[in-house]
Amino acid sequence: IAALKAIVREFHANGVKVYFPYTSWEIDTRRTGTLTDEQDLARLIAETDVDGAFLDVYFDAGEFQPELDKVKRGFSLGTEHHPSLQNIQGYNALTSSYGQTLQPYQNNGVSRVKWLIPEHMQWTINRNARDRQNNMAYSWINAQGLIVWENVFGYVNPWNARDRQDLRKINAIYQQFSGLYNSDSWKPYLPSGHPKVHISSWENKDSKIWNIITDSAGAVRTVALPVGDKSWHYYDLWSGQKLAVTGQKVTVPMARFGCVVGFKNQPSAAVAGLLRRQQQETATALPATDPHVAFVSTKPFKAPPAIGPGHGPAPGNLLAVKAGEYNLVTKGVKRESESFPDADGKNNNDYRTEKNSFGKELIVHHTKVAVPAFGIMPRAVTNGEYAAFVQASGYAPADTVDYLRHWQGRTCPDSLKNQPVVYISLDDARAYAAWAGLRLPTEWEWQIAGEAHGRAFIYNEVWEWTESERFDGHNHFVSLRSGCAGWQLQTSRWYFPGQATNNPPGGPQPLDFHCKYFIMKAGYDRAGTLGFRCLK
Fold first, then answer.
1. Distance CA 504, CA 313 (A)
2. pLDDT band at 291 (very low <50, low <70, confident <90, very high)
3. Cα(64)–Cα(73) distance, integer angstroms
4. Structural domain boundaries of the chain?
5. Rounded alpha-carbon distances, angstroms, from residue 441 to 1, 357, 472, 480, 532
6. Residues 6+ apart with CB under 8 A from 467
7. What whole-number distance in Å separates Cα of residue 262 and Cα of residue 369?
8. Contact 287, 161 (CB under 8 A)
C-alpha cells in the first residue's frame, strides 16, 4: 500500500489521473473475507487517493458508487463494455467506459454516450491492431479518448511512430480545449462536400473548433472548410499554422486527421504555445527505423548457468536420463499473454492450437531437442534440504518480501521439512542449485525426465521453476512445469484448463502441460504454490 500511495502521488504531481483495475472474477486472491468487494475497493481508494476504477467485464457500476462516494466524491467509474443508456445518467451514472466492443461502421459513427452525456468519456481501443489509424479516426470525430495499451497482458503490441505522433497531436489539442469538447455544442458530421471527409464541431461565443477525418490516408489532399465569420482568427491546429480566409472558407491540408480552431479575439498565450508545439511536432520526421517497435524473438531461451563444483552434500537418488534426441509435445492455455513460437515460426505467435474436451483453446508446441545425459531429482527440493543450504551458506536475498513466508520465522518447522519448499524466487532457486553443485532443469529436460521415469518422477506437488527464461524486449517470463494438487481455483478459469463448475481449473496438470509465468520482482514472484527441483 505504501508503494502504491507513493506512485499515485508521483502521477498526481505530473498532472496524471490514476485508475485501478477491478476484476470481479478473480476471487482466489486478495479477498479479506470480512468486507464486500465494494467496501474493500473503497478502503483501498481511501488509502491511496486514486481517481477512478476500471470495472473489468462490467456493463454497469453495480453497488460501487454509494460505497465509493463515502470516501471520495467525484470518483470516476468506467466499465469494459459499452454501457446502457440507463447507466450513464442519474446519481450512479458511469462517467467513463471502454469502447472495446464497439464496431463502428467504416470507422465512422456517432458515439451514443457522448451525444447524450457530453461529459462521459469513452476510451476506444482495438488492442490487437498493429495500425491504430482507424481507431483514432473514430475517436477523433467524436472527441473521445484512446487507450494506449502496448503490453496486453504480457503480449507486446507497440504503437508505430506515425500513430504515436498523431496521438501526441490529438492529446495536446484535447488538453487545451477540453472545455469545448465536453460542452453540449457538438454538431457531428457537418456537410463536407466529399463522401470521404467527415467533420464535427464544438463552439461557444468566443471560439469554435472543427475535428476532421478522412476515410483513409491520402483520400484528399485538402479540405475547404466553411467558417462563416471572416473577422475571426483561424488556425490549423494539426500543423500549428495560421489560416487565411478566402470566400468564407479556409483551406486545410489533410493526410488522415485535421483540426481547425477559430477565435473571435487573438489567441491566448497558452494557445500560442500549443501552436508552436504542433509546428515542432509536424517538423519532426518519423524515424526510418523505429526501435520502439523492434521485434525481439522469444524462440530462444536464456542459457542455463554452468554447473560448478558446489559446496553442499552430493545429491543422491538422482533419476538417470540418457543422452539423445527427443520429440516433445507441450501444451498450454491460449490467452492474451500468448506464448513463444515453434522452432519453425517466424513471429512470436507462430504456433499450432487445438481445443480440449472443455472447449479450451490450447497452444501446442512440437519441439525436437537434443540433450546430454543427466540425473534429476525425483521430486521437488524440500524445506529441510533448503534449510540446510541456508544454514551452511548464510544465504539471504536482497528482496525478502514473502521469502520463506510459510516458515513464519528464520528456521524451518519440523512439520514442513519433508514438504516441497515454496515462497522461493527464481534467483533463490538458482542460489540453492549453485551451492549444491546443480542447476535447474530446462522445461524440456523436465518433461523428458518425467516421460522417461513415470511414477518415479514425482510431480504435481507444487509448480516448479525451470531454466526457460525468455525476454520479448519488454517482459521476462519462464515456463512453469508440474501443477499443484492442493491448489484449485474457484474462478479464473482463463488461467488453466477446466471450468469452475466442472473439473475446476488449477490443481494437478498432465506431464506435457506448461504455464507462462512473468518474472516481475522477487517478492512478487514468490508463491506458496511454487518450488523447484535440480539436476546434474
1. 41
2. very high
3. 12
4. 319-531
5. 36, 30, 22, 11, 9
6. 301, 302, 304, 305, 439, 440, 441, 442, 443, 478
7. 67
8. yes
- The angle subtended at Cα 126 by Cα 123 and Cα 129, nearest 5°, is 145
Asked whether the beta carbons of 275 and 240 are under 8 A apart, the reply is: yes
Instruction: Give CA–CA dist 536/306, Å, rounded.
Output: 10
**281 grid coordinates:** 511536432
Q: For the chain, how many residues are written?
A: 536
C-alpha cell at 457: 518422477
DSSP-assigned states of every residue in 446-480: HHHHHHHHGGGS--SSSEE--S--EE-SS-EEEEE
Instruction: Dihedral sign for Cα 72, 76, 78, 83, please.
Output: positive
Instruction: State whether residue 261 is helix, strand or coil.
Output: strand
Give 26-50 pLDDT, tens digit per residue: 877 777 778 899 999 999 999 999 9
Say how far residue 504 (Cα) sits from the centre of its chain: 26
Cα separation, 49 vs 352, in Å, equals 45
Task: Please tell me the distance from the alpha carbon of residue 72 to that of residue 95, in angstroms, as a whole number.
Answer: 15
167-180 tens-digit pLDDT: 999 999 999 999 99
457538438: which residue's cell? 186
> Pairing state of beta strands 76-79 and 52-56?
parallel
| From 289-303, 336-350, 520-534, the region with the lowest mean pLDDT | 336-350
Query: How far, in Å, CA of 513 to CA of 329, rounded?
Result: 9
Residue in this structure with the C-alpha cell 495500425, named with its chain if needed: 131
DSSP per position, 180-202: HHTSS--EEEE--SSTTEEEEEE
What is the C-alpha separation between 50 and 65, in angstroms, rounded? 14
Report which secondary-structure segment, H or E, holds 97.
Answer: strand 96-98
Strand order in the sheet with 52-56: 19-23, 52-56, 76-79, 96-98, 121-124, 145-146
| pLDDT tops 90 at residue 337 | no
* SS3 letters across 122-159: EEECCCCCCCCHHHHHHHHHHCCEECCCCEECCEECCC
Angle at 383 (CA atoms; ends 382, 386), nearest 5 degrees: 90
Return all residues near 511 (Cβ < 8 A) that are at least 6 apart: 447, 450, 451, 459
